[in-house]
Each structure stands twice: as structure tokens, then as C-alpha cells.
């Protein structure tokens, strides 16, 4: 199953990736951890247990330090992520409000005389004449379809 993302979502992901990139200290700690793990893998645990456990303690201390560094990041990244998410949504809402006011009395299209929408006529044609689809109804239907996709 493939997940399709919108271009705005891709931009958000790229910006979040840039904000979450590792600092110099994190890179140094990760390279030291990898070197220690490589050294530890070359040691026989049964024969040289003391040396093996000493290296393991160093790896554990590096892991704790990395967790402390990463523990400080989420607040900033969380706020940035919220800002992007709700910032884009608020801009879209403002554009939709402006378009709704500007195109209030402009029908999107005419359904024809053969179409009878009797129970829903007032909902579909709100500020327009009968059998004309209003901008409000068109936006509502488009949003519903976009959510389903």
C-alpha cells in the first residue's frame, strides 16, 4: 500500500529533517559508539568479560548522553511542527474565506432543467437560483472528497 503525500507535506518534512539534523557533538558521540561497538564485537565475551563489560558501560554512558541531548530537542521541534501544520491550515482557511466572500453570488455551474433536486435545492443553490450549484456547496463537496482521498 503506497502512501501519497501532498507537496506541502513534503516541504514540511524537508524542513523538519533540516531542523532535526544531528549536531557536531551528536555525530561525534555516534561515531564513538560505532567504534566501541566494532571493538566490542571483536572481543570474545566469555574469555574477556571484564574488557567486554567495560566497553559496554562506555556504550551505555554514550546512549544516556545521546538521550539527554535528544530529550532537549522535542519541545522546539514540536512547536515548529505545530507552527507549520497550523500555519499552512490557517493560510488555507483565510484563502477560502476570501474566495467565499468574493464568489458568493457566482454559481459554479448549471445542472439543467431536467435535474430535480427538490429536497436539497435550497442547500445546493443557497444564494443562487434553482439548479445552479453555489460556491459554498462546491467547496463543501470538494473538502469532503479531499478528506476521503
Automatic annotation (TrEMBL):
Pfam families per the UniProt record, alphabetical: CHD5
Transmembrane parts of this sequence: 78-103
Location, primary (coarse class): endoplasmic reticulum
Membrane topology: Multi-pass membrane protein
Keyword field: Endoplasmic reticulum, Membrane, Transmembrane, Transmembrane helix
One GO cellular component, as annotated: endoplasmic reticulum membrane
Molecular function GO terms recorded: protein-membrane adaptor activity
Any Gene Ontology biological process: tail-anchored membrane protein insertion into ER membrane
InterPro entries documented for this protein: Get1 (IPR028945), Helix_hairpin_bin_sf (IPR029012)
Subcellular location: Endoplasmic reticulum membrane
Similarity remark: Belongs to the WRB/GET1 family.
Name of the protein in question: Guided entry of tail-anchored proteins factor 1
Amino acid at each position: 500500500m503506497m502512501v501519497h503525500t501532498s507537496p506541502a507535506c513534503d516541504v514540511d518534512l524537508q524542513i523538519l529533517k533540516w531542523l532535526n539534523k544531528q549536531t557536531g557533538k551528536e555525530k561525534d558521540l555516534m561515531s564513538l559508539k560505532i567504534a566501541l561497538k566494532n571493538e566490542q564485537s571483536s572481543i570474545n565475551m566469555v574469555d574477556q568479560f571484564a574488557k567486554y563489560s567495560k566497553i559496554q558501560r562506555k556504550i551505555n554512558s554514550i546512549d544516556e548522553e545521546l538521550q539527554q541531548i535528544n530529550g532537549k530537542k522535542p519541545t522546539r521541534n514540536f512547536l515548529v511542527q505545530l507552527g507549520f501544520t497550523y500555519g499552512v491550515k490557517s493560510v488555507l482557511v483565510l484563502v477560502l474565506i476570501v474566495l467565499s466572500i468574493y464568489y458568493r453570488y457566482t454559481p459554479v455551474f448549471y445542472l439543467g432543467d431536467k435535474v430535480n433536486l427538490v429536497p436539497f435545492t435550497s442547500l445546493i443553490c443557497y444564494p443562487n437560483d434553482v439548479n445552479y450549484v453555489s460556491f459554498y456547496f462546491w467547496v463543501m463537496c470538494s473538502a469532503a472528497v479531499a478528506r476521503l482521498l
